[in-house]
Amino acid sequence: MVVILKDGTDRSDVMELMEYLDAFNVSVSVTEGEHTTILGLIGDTVSLSEDDIRAFDFVEDVKRIQEPYKAANKKFHPNPTVVEVGDGIKIGGGNFQVIAGPCSVESKEQIIEVAKAVKASGATLLRGGAFKPRTSPYAFQGLRAEGIELLLEAKKETGMPIVTEIMNAAHLPLFEHVDIIQVGARNMQNFELLKVLGKQEKPVLLKRGLANTIEEWLMSAEYIMAGGNKNVILCERGIRTFETATRNTLDLSAIAALKEKTHLPVIVDPSHATGVVQYVERLSVAAVAAGADGLIIEVHNNPKKALCDGPQSLTPAQFDTTMEKIKKMHKFMSEEISY
Amino acid sequence: MVVILKDGTDRSDVMELMEYLDAFNVSVSVTEGEHTTILGLIGDTVSLSEDDIRAFDFVEDVKRIQEPYKAANKKFHPNPTVVEVGDGIKIGGGNFQVIAGPCSVESKEQIIEVAKAVKASGATLLRGGAFKPRTSPYAFQGLRAEGIELLLEAKKETGMPIVTEIMNAAHLPLFEHVDIIQVGARNMQNFELLKVLGKQEKPVLLKRGLANTIEEWLMSAEYIMAGGNKNVILCERGIRTFETATRNTLDLSAIAALKEKTHLPVIVDPSHATGVVQYVERLSVAAVAAGADGLIIEVHNNPKKALCDGPQSLTPAQFDTTMEKIKKMHKFMSEEISY
Amino acid sequence: MVVILKDGTDRSDVMELMEYLDAFNVSVSVTEGEHTTILGLIGDTVSLSEDDIRAFDFVEDVKRIQEPYKAANKKFHPNPTVVEVGDGIKIGGGNFQVIAGPCSVESKEQIIEVAKAVKASGATLLRGGAFKPRTSPYAFQGLRAEGIELLLEAKKETGMPIVTEIMNAAHLPLFEHVDIIQVGARNMQNFELLKVLGKQEKPVLLKRGLANTIEEWLMSAEYIMAGGNKNVILCERGIRTFETATRNTLDLSAIAALKEKTHLPVIVDPSHATGVVQYVERLSVAAVAAGADGLIIEVHNNPKKALCDGPQSLTPAQFDTTMEKIKKMHKFMSEEISY
Amino acid sequence: MVVILKDGTDRSDVMELMEYLDAFNVSVSVTEGEHTTILGLIGDTVSLSEDDIRAFDFVEDVKRIQEPYKAANKKFHPNPTVVEVGDGIKIGGGNFQVIAGPCSVESKEQIIEVAKAVKASGATLLRGGAFKPRTSPYAFQGLRAEGIELLLEAKKETGMPIVTEIMNAAHLPLFEHVDIIQVGARNMQNFELLKVLGKQEKPVLLKRGLANTIEEWLMSAEYIMAGGNKNVILCERGIRTFETATRNTLDLSAIAALKEKTHLPVIVDPSHATGVVQYVERLSVAAVAAGADGLIIEVHNNPKKALCDGPQSLTPAQFDTTMEKIKKMHKFMSEEISY
């Protein structure tokens, strides 16, 4: 960490800051220029907060050199994390999976029909919302506990592991037989929930927040990992911008940045990112080309009757066509391109 | 609600959509142009979702006319809501209050010292964080339950009602003697938490999310109000932009927009919005001039030693100077300007 | 276009609006609901401005149905535009090209060395900045007229057509032997410049503005096309967001959206979009997978000594490796995937 | 400037960088930590570019300490700039002015009627667009040269100095009798235009770009000032965000930040910032309270018939009411509040 002091800072002020830093395990070297004094802080600065140092009014600026995350940091864990879901299904480290299913679980018939269809097309995990975060209190909120029951029936019927979203730590017991617990974009910084998920063992699929930076996202992964659970899958799902042709702006550069910064697997959700069914295919294929470890795609047997997010759901037939291209691209990438 | 159909939509498709709409309590009028058919939906469209209608693939676009919020809507409740905090302290409808205190409660001495100081300067409510949302799991997370105890001691000592943030619905029993429960920006769309707060009676101070629109914010207020709790105070605290001179961009236009759209009181947090102590005064005074119903300002007896957010905390002396200007401006506004 | 009137609008107001609309060549149908009146405007609404209609104070909202662009609109021109650069080099409609070269032209030796290197690796057009838009007036502003001379020498030496940026319509005579004229992001809405470029015949490479929507970008293309020049190539180069791990956020969804909305070719600039040399390769390959008609990549023979944008410039060796992957991906896409 | 080197950087690399820096007039001090080497660059670093240094691949990060602007920098010019417009009208350094007028000049009658009305209400300068930047080539582009003629007639009739926008350096001769030349948001980084305006003497009103930071804005002012013209007036007009209730988000914090960073006067444009007539008054008053040196407000004698931007234009009667409040607030601020 580098601390830049204002012109004219007293020696006594510098001493006060040095004393403060003594409480942390860092050593300090001082460079004095004509107008500026620069302190170099060497050691484990993860527990130091830039803001705390900025509070000294003679501090001009503070610049972190070390990343503030450790468990998620590729520097300390160069090998890619492989998340094992069970039944030999793995995500990361060269293992690529497609998760598919409806936005919401609506009925036994619906979820089983979609599950069979997406499995036939090549998806290996089933998604479906039981607890649904909806902007409006008057909109369908999901079948909740019953939705999870129906997902489990679809799992029994098809053998597919299931992924579903948690919105409240108190619901955790309901997720006992769920295979991957999803944290939605709106809860990416629900730190109380993250802490609870860090103390259990199921893999967590952590979506990026609507307006969060990659560093903040990794810090949320760090919350889970700091609790002991190393099985975190990051999911890029678009960030909010001023563009209106798409619901959000899918940030595929995030794959490049994450592959440099972290060992955690990264999957992409082109359905929520675009909100437009016609754009899902191209962005699925492009995400594979960018090196994503998986995709999560919305499929509904009758998008018009979907209780949420119809406009972004593929029909099973559309999904089948898209999967053909995804599979071709994944095979091509595996054989021909390495980054 | 207006539904625009694509060129060449079949009559049978239109019939299918009409049938779907029958389930809701709306009547439909049809305008047929040469290339476009337009449906006008008349009635209570709050429970209709634009996205659900967009899922019909022959729908070109959907445009809501009625606002999707009812309880928070000024059209249906033209009189301003006045939130009564107790001891005659009211917010809204011409009642203006300044809430002040440290980012975090750190010790009994600290919170009582700050409380006395801000009271002496004219603040009428005490803020202080017991549960702290921190980006890093390694940063100070607040004194939690103990922090609330210390706030209650400061309340007993000074008589000031207290405002503090909740991060987990399970903690609600700890808030029994808290006067206003704050929902932080990161939890603005933690719908499970909002629902719980809607079923209890204490006033809720609802901060705007980092990247949320005014309509989404009002929908979150609606979540609380739909549960029965009408005592919601909105708090503008800056939105995330690409500007770096300030931590966030304070959106004072939001006051103008909210005063047109809702009857709920609106307060402003210049400390979190700017993140820079030198900018707090000007924006406090400007917020009063824009018609805010109150302010919430961070004050710390020793900002350098603050366990969080030091750079944005005023000292008691700075707060006193700022309060002088706030009081003058509030008096001037009350006597001279009405919007 | 749909115009929604406020509840309680007088018949005389409606008549006033109808009269106003008479001046334009549109017919109006009226739907009266209990609380809302909806006007459907049928005809050529391109010359009508939503804002002008919103100025009638009894208008609640206006919704455009037709896109505001015509010449660039795929609806009216379903076949893809193929821009012919000369020497049989084409962009669009299945013709894919890679443009490469340094940020700035710095010397004869530099530009010829880079030109030969990128040609050997497979690039077919040479880029290089002669006029450089720099945030600081104290930064290198380009060799200007001399830079164009040097580009022309490199063209003579290698036979590669050249692409370079114009910043001032008065400089147009200097571009006589340039093959493609680039309009930079900061000039995307320099309408005076666009008009001039519409009245000459050279192809224009139009970069997306830092914070512009796809519709605004197409409207800028429309400015050029309305003048008579149909040879516009769109270039996605990242939009400004709050993310800091990359200089901008590359919006690959824009390719999907543009392929639906326009017949113009779309190329991608991963160098400016990311600003990070390590991310250029993945995003180049992903852009091809998303269906881009070309790429524009920065290459410098000595990035450390580059007079601008060094951190995002590939060395010739890095470019060669990247080109291998781009070529493989392009071949694969041509043979195996069609959208 | 602080340069942080990557772990394991060779001594020979450090020497290479030192050699590079020798060409600039800076001295370097080196701090070697266990894992990091930090270089402190002391001297005049304005001509050094962070990006150029980042291009050395062993450089981890670069942090500027000195601001990159000099002429606009308050540190070097602590006294506020007072721009003299003529006839004793001054802006800045305690001199407050209101500029008002229509979005576009449409006819002699219109501009003279509006000019007389706004003068009667207390405006001291007349604005009016002759050259209009419009997103669509099919929209009204302004009366251009004729518009300037009409403004000059209104000036003769009322004695008010005039402010109007330039879009093309080639038009400069037409601005001979214009009093303040406006650079619009879309041209804030049209550096060729800024350079030309720096070489003439008329005051320049420089609007902030739609998505530009305060530092970039000051760098654009620096372009003008570096040419010799010190008479720059900054105009905050809202930045683009995801909020849709207002056209842009007015950033009043920018006043606080600018008053700390620069000596140039700052005015506010609430009309373009909000795009909503009902919000203009509150934000005008709030801007004065925040310490703006002036306002620029759109007024049209018949907003419904305005050829552009009707929805944000006040009628003369509305402007008169708003001016009463602005005048009261300005008087109050002058007498009672100093920052």
Outline the structure in words:
Four copies of one chain form a homotetramer. With 339 residues, chain A is an alpha/beta fold. Chain A folds into two domains: 62 residues, Phospho-2-dehydro-3-deoxyheptonate aldolase, domain 1 (Alpha-Beta Plaits, 2-Layer Sandwich); 254 residues, Alpha-Beta Barrel (TIM Barrel), CATH 3.20.20. Helix content of chain A is 34%, strand content 19%. In chain A, the strands form three sheets. Chain A has an eight-stranded parallel beta barrel with strand order 7-8-9-10-11-12-13-14, surrounded by five helices. Chain A has a four-stranded antiparallel beta sheet with strand order 2-3-1-4. A two-stranded antiparallel sheet of chain A has the order 5-6. Chain A is elongated. Chains A and B meet through helix 2, helix 5 and helix 6 of A and helix 2, helix 5 and helix 6 of B.
Q: What would you say about this model in short?
A:
4 copies of one chain form a homotetramer. By secondary structure, chain A is of the alpha/beta class.
